[in-house]
Amino acid sequence: MSKIFATTSGKGGVGKSSVATGLGLAFTHLGHRVLLVDMDEGLRCLDLLLGVEGEAVLDLSDALTAPDISDVAYPCKTENLFLLPAPSNKNVVTPEALSDFCQKAESFYDIIIFDFPAGIDFSLYNALPRKATFVCIATPDPVSVRDASFVGAELSKLGLTARLVINRFNLKTH
């Protein structure tokens, strides 16, 4: 049975995509087959972080209707790490299609990590299975922590499991 994670935050620039990529790499080093799904429609970046930007023609919108998701996902340089870039157009992913996609993807991958965009649009969060763990990313900046607190409270209201990661924390300055 797959484990599903989703990175989120209330504020941009806190390192969500870097944390998602780091988690993906860590899980591959433990022997898991990992799929990273970039959910930032119109502003994708995981293809750049993972070095597949020149190959990326298909994206999540194609995978939503593909009979075999593994035909659409891009293998990354790290063995057992695969990427589905976000669509270049906004609002093409519906909750119903994402829910169906999750069910199909679980048969191909041990770990699935969804990298959601910053902000407070939670419209697709309930499309993920209830077992999904949301990782709310913040920096030590007071605005970022306040935004993360809001996101965590909203996730709790939706009945979703959330964890907080403080990124870029420097023990020497705190």
Q: Low-confidence parts, pLDDT < 50 over ≥5 residues?
A: none
Q: Structural class, from secondary structure content? A: alpha/beta
Helix-strand sequence: EHEHHEEHEEHE
Euclidean distance between termini CA atoms: 40 Å
Number of beta-strand segments: 7
Overall shape: it is: globular
Query: What's the pLDDT, averaged over the residues?
Result: 88
The helix fraction, in percent, is 25-40%
Tell me the quaternary state: single chain
Question: Count of helices?
Answer: 5
Q: Which strand order does the major sheet show?
A: 3-4-2-5-1-6-7
Which strand-content bin applies to the residues? 15-25%
The main pleated sheet reads as:
7 strands, mixed
**Rg measurement, Å:** 15 Å
Notes on the structure:
The protein is of the alpha/beta class. The protein contains 5 helices and 7 strands. Strands 3-4-2-5-1-6-7 form a 7-stranded mixed β-sheet, with helices on both faces. Strand 3 and strand 4 form a beta hairpin.
Topology:
Elements: E1 3-8, H1 16-29, E2 34-38, H2 46-49, H3 60-63, E3 74-75, E4 81-84, H4 95-105, E5 111-115, E6 133-138, H5 142-157, E7 161-166
Parallel strand pairs: 1-5, 1-6, 2-4, 2-5, 6-7
Antiparallel strand pairs: 3-4
Note the main attributes of this structure.
28% helix, 174 residues, single chain, 7-stranded mixed sheet, alpha/beta, 5 helices
Question: In summary, what is this structure?
Answer:
The protein is α/β, with parallel strands linked by helices. Helices cover 28% and strands 20% of the residues.
